[in-house]
Amino acid sequence: MSQSNKNKGSKIARQTAARLAAVQAVYQMKANDQSAKSVISEFKAHRMGVPLEEQEMVLPDGILFEGIVDGVSDRQSDIKEVIDTLLSEQNKSKSSASLDSMEPLLGSVLLCGAFELLAHHDIDAPIIISDYLEVTHAFYEGGESKLVNGILDNVSKTVRDI
pTM (2 decimals)? Predict the structure, then answer.
């Protein structure tokens, strides 16, 4: 099998890889005050499909990756409003419950997941939520996945007909 086909992966694997890359890109946008266009270009040129610690990586679905990053950038205030409302309802005793007060990487997971639930009605919500739970598990070992699951499930119920 050629090198270019080795890391191509299945459609599902490529979508999962795109979601992981999108979370990393959104985090980088926030951390470095970069534009979506700049981060997308950098990821496409230097990160997507590049081996990590000598392990081949699945090539992310570039269209999905770009759509998520651009979508989060374009609709961030709307997405934040939905998430902040759900966070405040979930944490009635904590007045400071908001996306801005959250650890930035965890906030990036929620932004990307919520954007997809808002924008991609063609993809079943459990598939989107499951992938973002996997992304969360890649970075965290504590209760963060419960928070992500709860918020994204509530976003889904808020923005989709069930």
Answer: 0.88
